Amino acid sequence: MQTIQANGYEVVFNQHGYEVLNALLPEKKYSKIFILADTITSEYCLPLFLQQLATETAIEIIEFETGEAFKNIETCVEIWNVLTELGADRKSLMINVGGGVVTDLGGFVASTFKRGIDFINVPTTLLSMVDASVGGKNGIDLGNLKNQIGIINVPQLVLIDTDYLDTLPKEQLRSGLAEMLKHGLIYDKAYWTQFADLSTLDLADLDTLIYDSVVIKNKIVQQDPTEKGIRKALNFGHTLGHAIESYFLENENKKTLLHGEAIAAGMILESYIAMEKNLLTDAEYSEIKRGIQNVFEDIIFEKRDLAPILELLIHDKKNEYGTIQFALLDGIGKTALNQTVDNELINMAFEDYKS
Asked: Which residue spans adopt a coiled-coil conformation according to this UniProt entry (predicted)?
């Protein structure tokens, strides 16, 4: 697969990616390399990565606990302290090997340590390959509020090796499909239709779909790096999806949702809202709902869940002047930005989802 030119860096793939990485390291003359991984990627992915890494620069491995619950400032402080204790300086490099939590948090840690050191992302989950790989968003959660603290800063390189997908459980692989479905819905109807029958797809198809998904997101981000316009389209499904994800994360009586599971529900709910606002036809909404439900199981919502979910919308980082802003579909393959939606319509969307 060809290298993708992003804003200020390259996205490289599979074996060629390691060749590019191993050529970059001596060129940059780093003083020390720090590899960040969580406990799961340290066990399953790091051995594969280290086999491919060729460098004479000293390497230190930093590990932290797996899970969204550890994507917080406390983890950052621990890692900053370890970097300091191990003698990291401005010429050090951080390589983040893992899913979206690792690359989001690792990019934030690197971007703020000594006012910024270089970092490279090696996403190991489908979700992080098609989402966190492009755009330069780095950040952490504030309590249960998703990605409230962060910056936009690009890595030196992103290396996508689809061999890491062999280490994923099925539910994690499925989670990544949500962002791929989203890319088709907001930008490319032909791409969306390729997911009509997942049973016919093989691993070679998945490689191509991943590549095409990165291309779509990259095209959007290149037009609008700082999210003032078209990049807001990438938030489709995320306004309600993030609120759902945050609510289930903080609620002891609820099963914690994977990001893609929450976003899948968010896309159905927001598609219903688009239909009610005459942006989607009934037939388009039915096609979207059916397509997503073919991949993801429905989430069980009780009546008492809706009020706290709506309350969490107040903290959505896309809000402006106290108004909740939605990116809704305007037909399949297009979006309508900065859409306001009242609570009555959101409640109607949940009622339809539950039916």
From this structure: none
